[in-house]
């Protein structure tokens, strides 16, 4: 019996001779086991930890590369040279890195002074999302689909907060103050954070700490169209419904609004970031919990409807 290997690593041809005139050829397929966990390849939703922090951050960075809100933070209308100087001041060695326990950021091979204005903004964009993903890994929840974090969702669970000093320290978020330009600091710390915090409290009222807050949901361009984002949404929708809790998000584009509406989210109000030359709209959207076999009665702007459903709409339903 002789064995001849084929040109691929997944099959081999085995030839067995029975008589001088006849032979039997058997083709056996040898399947090599991949190191990629099977459930990752199957598109199952999984929880992301600090080990995959940068992969998740890069997915979101590419997904939001042209997003109006993302550009609002880094395109501050100021001097690009000043922005590069601020980045260098944050890390004079020219490397964008952090050595906190559990966090390992990328290291640059050269100085920030060698970067163009566009490259500086891109690195800042990636850093913002890296810090954000890390803070959610520490004190929130990060879920993903795909072997390379092809689609990522950042959640703040009910009763959780990301502004604790330990979370800020470990995630590297403290660096952002020194990396942003003076105008960028005003936009992020003086305008964006207070506005988002106050708006969420106003819209949700006494349910503010009893809500699943979707901070980011993005899919890398090469993986879009596969339904990954829908899987992440549906996974948390099932949990929120089981816990009888609403879901809350801020949408930065009208196209996203239409997408989220397919999953039961409703626009409650629009807010605007106004320090730039063109205001940036953020739509506040809420999804009320569904009870099996019931239809949710949403809050109405009609005063009579509000009076009729006094006490709120959480968990309220009409039997179908």
UniProtKB/TrEMBL annotation:
In this chain the N-acetyltransferase domain maps to 152-287
**Pfam family membership, one:** Acetyltransf_7
Q: Where is the composition biased (Low complexity)?
A: 85-99
Q: Where is the signal peptide?
A: none
Q: Which molecular-function annotation in GO is an example for this chain?
A: acyltransferase activity, transferring groups other than amino-acyl groups
Write out the ranges of the annotated region (Disordered): 85-111
PANTHER family recorded = GNAT FAMILY ACETYLTRANSFERASE, N-ACETYLTRANSFERASE DOMAIN-CONTAINING PROTEIN
Query: What name does the UniProt record give this protein?
Result: GCN5-related N-acetyltransferase
Q: What species was this sequence derived from? A: Corynascus novoguineensis
The beginning of the lineage is: Eukaryota, Fungi, Dikarya, Ascomycota, Pezizomycotina
């Amino acid at each position: 019996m002789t064995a001849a290997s084929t040109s691929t690593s997944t099959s081999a041809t085995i030839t067995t001779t029975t008589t001088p005139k006849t032979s039997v050829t058997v083709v056996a397929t040898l399947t090599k086991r991949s190191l990629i966990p099977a459930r990752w390849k199957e598109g199952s939703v999984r929880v992301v930890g600090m080990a995959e922090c940068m992969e998740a951050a890069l997915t979101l960075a590419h997904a939001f590369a042209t997003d109006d809100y993302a550009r609002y933070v880094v395109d501050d209308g100021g001097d690009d040279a000043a922005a590069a100087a601020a980045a260098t001041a944050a890390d004079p060695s020219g490397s964008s890195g952090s050595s906190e326990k559990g966090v390992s950021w990328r290291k640059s091979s050269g100085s920030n002074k060698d970067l163009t204005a566009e490259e500086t903004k891109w690195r800042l964009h990636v850093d913002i999302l890296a810090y954000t993903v890390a803070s959610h890994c520490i004190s929130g929840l990060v879920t993903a689909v795909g072997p390379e974090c092809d689609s990522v969702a950042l959640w703040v669970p009910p009763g959780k907060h990301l502004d604790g000093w330990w979370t800020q320290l470990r995630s590297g978020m403290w660096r952002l103050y020194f990396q942003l330009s003076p105008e960028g600091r005003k936009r992020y710390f003086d305008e964006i954070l207070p506005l988002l915090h106050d708006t969420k409290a106003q819209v949700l009222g006494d349910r503010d700490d009893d809500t699943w807050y979707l901070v980011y949901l993005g899919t890398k361009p090469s993986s879009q169209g596969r339904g990954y984002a829908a899987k992440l949404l549906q996974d948390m929708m099932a949990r929120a419904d089981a816990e009888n809790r609403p879901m809350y998000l801020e949408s930065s584009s009208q196209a996203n609004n239409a997408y989220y509406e397919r999953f039961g989210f409703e626009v409650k109000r629009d807010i605007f970031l106004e320090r730039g030359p063109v205001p940036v709209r953020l739509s506040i959207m809420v999804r009320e919990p569904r009870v099996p076999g019931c239809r949710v009665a949403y809050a109405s702007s009609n005063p009579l409807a509000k009076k009729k459903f006094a006490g709120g709409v959480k968990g309220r339903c009409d039997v179908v």
